[in-house]
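Lay summary. Proteins are chains of building blocks that fold into shapes, and those shapes determine what they do. In this project we predict the shape from the chain. Here is one chain we studied, written as its sequence of building blocks.
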Amino acid sequence: MSTIFNQIKYPFDTKFIKVNEYDIAYIDEGNSENVLLFIHGLGSYLKAWDRNIPELKNHFRCIALDLPGYGKSSKQIHSGEVSFYVEILNEFITKLNLKSVSLVGHSMGGQIALAYVINNPNQIVKLILAAPAGFETFNKDEIELIKKIISPEILFKTSDHQIRLNYQFNFFKMPAETEEMIADRIAIKTDEDFFNHCTIVSNSLFGLLNAPVYDQLKQINIPTLIFFGKDDLLIPNKSIHQTTTEKVAVYGSSQIKNSKLILFDECGHFLQYERPDKFNSQVISFF
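And here is the predicted shape, written in a compact code that computers can read:
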């Protein structure tokens, strides 16, 4: 069984490290003592940071990984539980002997980063969250409703047209550079491990729903920078919650003592890709 999607190419040198039984793909750019560890979102990969690392590597050591089941990391099916990803991150940090680490998480990666800090309060210096999952809460009935409309089979059969629409849904105005990610997503449909990937994405969504962090946000004491796009079409879930992204962002950030919230006008869910200059400059200022 192959362990990488050979159809996709990364702009930086790709390294691999064995973490538990998984071959984890990652990139490592920059020489600073301050380490930014980037965690991508659901159904994404480390190219989610393509418009950030080229600038931020001039100020920090930037490490972005493909979580197990994503990108070029190995595709053995796993639970997708948040606790699983926290364990992988912890082992990854240990194996690379990383110090002075700050986590940068987008969407699902944001909830994983939050869970990591909650469970390892003394290991992370700062926290940067881009449209994090975990601020929006769901009751049992809502969780069951979401579970009924997503499955590996549905993901596996997604048409090329729907793939494009799914990407467009992440933006207020989709950057031209997104075409490369759309092409990658279409190309991997032919890979022998694609169904495993779809299963992991489905499991990961359920993992997020099964491990809410909202009630534990007050435990976080480290400096935290939070970004949301005001025109985010994914948070909140519009079919379930009749509220605004700004309200979700304000409520969530208010639970974290030492946090700063930045809201981008005319910007969607994939904010670090849609507004890279603003995102990058705010991250640099944060340090």
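What the prediction tells us: The CA atoms of residues 236 and 247 lie 9 Å apart.
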